[in-house]
Structures are given as structure tokens and as C-alpha cells.
Amino acid sequence: MSPGATVWLTGLPGAGKTTIASVLAGQLRAAGREVEVLDGDELRANLSAGLGFSRQDRDTHVRRVGFVAELLARHGVIALVPVIAPYAATRDDVRAQHDAHGTSYLEVHVATPLAECRRRDPKGLYARAAAGELTALTGVDDPYEEPDKPDLRVDTTGSDVATAAQRVLDLLIERGLA
Fold first, then answer.
1. How far apart are CA 64 and CA 70, in angstroms?
2. 89-127 core/surface letters (b: 16 or more CB in 10 A; e: else)
3. CATH, residue 101
4. How far apart are CA 84 and CA 76, in angstroms?
5. How far apart are CA 1 and CA 17, in angstroms?
6. Which domain holds residue 159?
7. What is the DSSP string of 45-100?
8. pLDDT in tens, 71-90
């Protein structure tokens, strides 16, 4: 069995996390790997239905996603996790959970600046926040704690998604996981 791994793509809303994960998933599948993309919005609607956006609820959601990712990775799947996970301590907990099982965990900070994320605004979240229709938006009126030492930092400003996905794939290859 090929080694599994969790690749957690953290960053602000609109940074490009899900887009990178989708392209990377295609590359890995083409190479014959088992891959699952654990999309934050889908998981929030299904795995974490009923949770809000308080710090406690966000932490609960991230820990749940981390559990599922680790379980998949432990069984040879590459779990791509494009989930904001705004708090460093919770991301550290997820890494520790992986470490406890000897499961590979890579943290990728999709470090696209707030101004670029606002410009893109693919889901209209920043516009809704500016209009006062949305509160507790990560990076605007709720904190986002950038990773101090991610395994990889990618800024998608002015670069194509294929280049960003290739950088993550190169990291997986370098670590013997792809």
C-alpha cells in the first residue's frame, strides 16, 4: 500500500485552497493514487451541521475534519483538506493527532494577501461583510493566525493554479508521499 498523508491547505477565504486541491487531486489520481478532497463547505454542511462560527464551533469543526483526514491517510489515501482552520492551536492539535498515529501531515499555507482575496471574492463573502450582512468573517472581523512554520507557503497572487498545485506535488514527492 502506498503511504497516505494529509495535506492541509490553510488560508483566508478566496485564497485558492480548494482550487489548488482540485487540480492537485487530478494530478495525483492520474498517477494512480487514492485521493479525497475534504472540502470545508461540504463538511460543514454534513459532518458539522449545526455548528456556528464561534471559536469553539470552528475548533470542533477543524478537529472533526482532522480526524477524518487522519483516518483516510492512515489507510493509504492522500487527504487534501482545503479548510481555513483559522487558529494555530487547533491546527497544532490536528498535527499532533496525526503524529500520534505516525501519519504524515503537511501544512500548506496558501498565503494570498487579504487584498487579493477581497478582489477575487468568489463566494461574495467579503462584499457581504462590507455591507454588514455577514459577521465573523475570517481575516476581516475574526482572526486568522498564519502558520509560523508551514511545510510550504504559496501565494497565488499573479500565478496560475497549475504552478501552485505543482509546488504542493513537488513537496509530496520530496517527502516520499507521491
1. 10
2. ebbeebbebbeeeebbbbbbbbbbeeebbbebeeeebbe
3. 3.40.50.300
4. 24
5. 27
6. 5-113+145-174
7. HHTTTT--SSHHHHHHHHHHHHHHHHHHHHTT-EEEEE-----HHHHHHHHHHHHH
8. 999 999 999 999 999 999 99
Indicate whether 123 belongs to any domain: no
pTM given for the model:
0.96
Q: Rounded to 5 degrees, what angle do the CA atoms 13, 65, 58 make? A: 55
> How many other CB atoms sit within 10 Å of the CB of residue 9?
30
Q: What is the pLDDT of residues 6-30, one digit of tens each?
A: 999 999 999 999 999 999 999 999 9
Angstrom distances, CA of residue 64 to CA of 19, 78, 79, 92: 22, 17, 14, 14
Query: How far is residue 19's CA from residue 74's CA, in Å, rounded to a whole number?
Result: 24
Contact assessment for residue 45 and residue 74, using Cβ atoms and an 8 Å cutoff: no
Structure-derived torsion over alpha carbons of residues 29, 31, 32, 34, reported in degrees to the nearest 10: -40
- Domains identified in the chain, total number: 1
d(C-alpha 151, C-alpha 167), whole Å: 11
16 class by beta-carbon count within 10 Å (0-12 exposed, 13-18 middle, 19+ buried):
buried
Between CA 17 and CA 108 the distance in angstroms is 9
Q: What is the mean pLDDT of residues 89-103?
A: 97
CA 115/CA 12 separation, integer angstroms:
11
